[in-house]
Amino acid sequence: MIKVFYDKRQSARSNESFSPSAQKPEQVVKIWQKHFPISMESFGPATTEEISLVHDERYVQSVLSCKTNNGFGNKSAEIAEALPWVVGSMVSAAVHAFKTKESCFSPTSGAHHAGYFSGGGFCTFNHLVLAACMAHQKGARKIGLIDLDCHYGDGSQDILDHLNIDYIEHYTFGRRSPAAGSPSDEWLKKLPQLLFPMKDCDLLIYNAGVDPHINDPLGGILTTEQMYKRDLIVYEFAVANKIPIVTSLAGGYQRDKDGSINPVLELHNNTMKAFVNANSIGGAL
User: Fold this and answer.
1) What proportion of the chain, given as a percentage, has pLDDT over 70?
2) Torsion angle, CA of 87/88/90/92, rounded to 10 degrees?
3) Is 284 inside any structural domain?
4) Cβ atoms 264, 20 nearer than 8 A
5) Which pLDDT band holds residue 183 (cuts at 50, 70, 90)?
6) How many folded domains does the chain comprise?
7) Distance between alpha carbon 117 and the CA centroid of its chain, in Å?
8) Phi, psi at 283, each rounded to 5°
9) What are phi and psi of 200, to 5 degrees?
């Protein structure tokens, strides 16, 4: 069974935002349950003290008390209640993967634009960097942060620089992503080389954003087939080097003609399919 660290409290039912990420965890888990052998793993919410390991504590407290805008640009109490569970999911999944050497999933989004002092771009708390820090506290010497969301993980880099963290190998697709219309196959061919510096990591954290898809309103360079190949390359790299990997969902903003996010859910489903095939779970799909 593939472990998924999900709790209904990490999903917010309503949030006035262009981004669907607050509601996405529940929807993604439902579609995964239909197609893959997954098991839900329990965990607790992250504490203010834990979140403050990678953020200014005043910012953390102000967001959670709805005095400061969250990454969506509002002061929603429902979002504030969900945030510790969102962070708890990612941290718990990462620590589990490192301690047991068992790769797993955290259906979370909204992290890599959150810097040390503030959030933005639909990102409030940087659970990616925090997960790496918590795994490091448990003994992980080197962690690879593979950020293949379409946009630059500026918040992650800000925290790494502010705290002088040198045990995280950070690659962010958005920093030098191929321009729209350029041959994206060339980037896919280079991806194994880009991952090579992480071959000696104790843990990989994969921010598997689906906004690089060619039809995404905020992305637009990779086809569905290329997105699958991207994920497969990452997971095959982890398998070949015997490194546990924990996957987060990140961005994705497509909607169909009825206004649903089914195109996004299908791409996240493809990510799980790539994981299953790379790990030969229940035979290739």
Assistant:
1) 92
2) 160
3) no
4) yes
5) low
6) 1
7) 20
8) 85, 160
9) -105, 20
CATH number at residue 243: 3.40.800.20
pLDDT of residue 100: 98
Report yes or no on 283 lying in a domain.
Answer: no
First-to-last alpha carbon distance for the chain, in angstroms, is 15
- DSSP for residue 173: G
Q: Residue 188 in contact with residue 165, Cβ under 8 Å?
A: no
**Could you report the per-residue pLDDT of 88-145, keeping only the tens digit for each?**
999 999 999 999 999 999 999 989 999 999 999 899 999 999 999 999 999 999 999 9
Of 246, 232, 219, 263, the residue nearest 27 (C-alpha):
263
0.90 surpassed by pTM: yes
Do strands 38-41 and 2-5 pair parallel, antiparallel, or not at all (unpaired)?
parallel
The DSSP letter of residue 144 is E
Q: What is the dihedral of CA 101, 200, 134, 89, to 10 degrees?
A: -50
Mean pLDDT along residues 207-228: 90
Q: Which tokens go with 147?
A: 């950020």
* Pair 232, 278: CB distance under 8 Å: yes
Total count of residues recorded for the chain: 285
**3-state SS class at 78:** helix
Q: Which amino acid is at 128?
A: L
CA dihedral 177, 180, 185, 191 (to 10 degrees): 10
Range of the domain at 179: 2-278
Tell me, what amino acid is at 100? T
User: Is residue 285 included in any domain, yes or no?
Assistant: no
Name which residue leads in pLDDT, 254 or 31. Answer: 31
Is 251 contained in some domain? yes
Q: How many other C-beta atoms can be found within 10 angstroms of the C-beta atom of residue 266?
A: 16
Between 149 and 3, whose confidence is greater?
Answer: 3
Listed in sequence order, the residues at least 6 apart from 33 whose beta carbon sits closer than 8 Å to its beta carbon are: none
